[in-house]
Amino acid sequence: MRGPWLTSVYGLVLLVTLPLVIVTGLLDHLAYGPAYGQAFPYDVGWLRLPAVDWPTRPSWLFRVTQGLHVTLGIMLVPVVLAKLWSVIPKLFDWPPARSVAQVLERLTLLLLVGGILFEIATGLLNMQYAYLFGFDFYTAHYFGAWVFTAALVAHVALKLPRLVTALRSRPVVRELTVGRAGTRPEPPDPDGLVAAAPGDPTMSRRGAIALVGGLSVLLGALTVGQSLDGAWRRTALLLPRGRQPDDGPTGFPVNRSALAAGIDPADTGPAWRLTLRAGDRTRALDRAALLALPQHTARLPIACVEGWSTLQTWTGVRLRDLAALVGAEDVDAARVRSLERAGLFNRATLAANQVLDPDSLLALRVNGVDLTPDHGWPARVIVPALPGVHCTKWVASIEFDRATA
Ligand SMILES: Nc1nc2c(c(=O)[nH]1)N[C@H]1C(S)=C(S)[C@@H](COP(=O)(O)O)O[C@H]1N2
Ligand SMILES: [Mo]
């Protein structure tokens, strides 16, 4: 079966879909940017993306970019493996260095293959929250993506003519009518992908394509549930983190429980105060005082950078109203801090547009009931289109920077 045509079919699928994975990945990095004051991701030096504030509209923006990135990325794993299998003779080309051109080509292959395997590994581990090696997966994934993308561009430039020739050599529609019995080797090719002495076919080419396509669809079907609400969520068998913990108004995924975050119930009881600060102005409000302020309700997603997302109805005080309480109508940024002491996500910086959106809330209630401890009681941030990781739970204080200060 192996040969330039089959390799080119897998290659074409990747050529069309990988740019979408790359672009959504870059957008996700922009949304979860180093600019926003969390432990992750690290500053990436000259690979920094242009400083634009992540928009708040449409509110499903990050849910879609992150969902596409993760779901497509998982679905492409069988295609990548099949493509690697189809070029196995190339990977073990011997002697390894015949000419400068060949050495350069092999170097791009090393970066290409190493790059995509690294991206798959860091992506999948991150989704399972397996922060195993004590380094920041997001930043590693980001650097790996640039290495891979550069190698991909070089590879496409080198191989595109060959891909076109190979695809023209056997019209896809005709090839799909050929069963196992009629399967013949492709003619010998300069890359040596076709076996010198092929055995009898054990499978047709259309069978190989159907197998890979079927696996891809199966993986997708076991993944998309984490981006859907209701009963669909239960189909996300591969991503247990994104599944429904239980039914009822607060039965949606929890990133970090109050227990895991070390939240002391004594700190979230009647003694809890929200501290607002802008310059030398300070206000402290308890939950009753917050509930006495104008309440606003918005239906907004939480979309976790690890892949799952969910749409819920949040009620609380507008962040811009809180800014106004300390005279920071002209807010430039807000620095939110949690009661949580040691966690990586115990603080976040919100840009001006993210504070000023009329749906940006310090939520006190969700789906008509009080927040539960795990969802951030007594108060948590929720901002349209903002990655879940910046929607700080168990908020202790918000400090507003003023534009004119
Ligand atoms: N203080 C604090 N806030 C936090 C987190 C955290 O670990 N600590 N996790 C964040 C992440 S990564 C996500 S996806 C959302 C999840 O909100 P939920 O647990 O209410 O669904 O909370 C965010 N807020
Ligand atoms: Mo998250």
From TrEMBL:
Keywords: Membrane, Transmembrane, Transmembrane helix. InterPro entries: OxRdtase_Mopterin-bd_dom, OxRdtase_Mopterin-bd_sf. Residues 270-402 form the Oxidoreductase molybdopterin-binding domain. The chain crosses the membrane at residues 7-27, 67-88, 109-131, 137-158, 208-228. Gene3D superfamilies: Oxidoreductase, molybdopterin-binding domain. Pfam families: Oxidored_molyb (PF00174). It comes from Micromonospora endolithica. This is Oxidoreductase molybdopterin-binding domain-containing protein.
